[in-house]
Design brief:
alpha+beta; 6 helices; 16% strand
Length: 179
């Protein structure tokens, strides 16, 4: 269910928030691994984590609704298929000069952006690229010398194609504007 499930070593701490309620309400959870938990047990300490809306009936109902929806759409196979399509899209963008690196995996992909002389794009240049891509109908997140692609789990192959077209057009427009 989590990207960390494929890591060689389990994380000591995971912080979950927005996805618990699909952004409908504020909710957070802190998952603590055995290594950290055993230290608290050994020391006789209580591990306390609280959040303002934690445990309210409305918040709990939102979390349960999200879990039911994730089960309904078979989120694991859906996300795996979407991640494969997103990976293919990212790989196809490597042939597009300005995109020189792919980071991340699955449904969380970063595209490293470089100038013609291979210098990383500045923050201002990344923001211009993000704005140009948005003018072509797709929202992407800015990152350090990169853009981040994080599609909703319901994206179709046609929608991924639209994302690719908007990114190509937006990056070309951003390059023209900076030339």
């Amino acid at each position: 269910m989590l990207a960390t499930d494929t890591w060689a070593a389990a994380p000591d701490v995971l912080i979950l928030s927005k996805a618990l309620t699909n952004g409908a309400m504020g909710a957070a959870a802190l998952l603590v691994g055995d290594r950290v938990a055993s230290e608290f047990v050994r020391g006789g300490w209580t591990f306390v984590h609280g959040e303002t809306q934690a445990g309210t009936p409305a918040c709990a109902a939102a979390i349960i609704a999200v879990i039911e929806e994730l089960r309904r759409i078979d989120v694991e196979s859906t996300a795996r298929a979407l991640g494969a399509g997103l990976g293919e899209l990212a790989t196809s963008l490597l042939s597009y000069g300005v995109v020189t690196e792919i980071t991340g995996r699955g449904c969380f992909i970063g595209l490293g952006l470089r100038t013609e002389d291979q210098a990383p794009l500045s923050g201002a240049e990344v923001l211009r690229a993000v704005a140009a891509i948005a003018r072509n109908g797709v929202l992407v997140q800015p990152g350090p010398s990169s853009i981040e692609l994080i599609p909703a789990y319901g994206f179709t192959a046609d929608e991924l194609h639209e994302v690719g077209a908007a990114i190509r057009s937006g990056l070309a427009q951003a390059q023209e504007a900076s030339a």
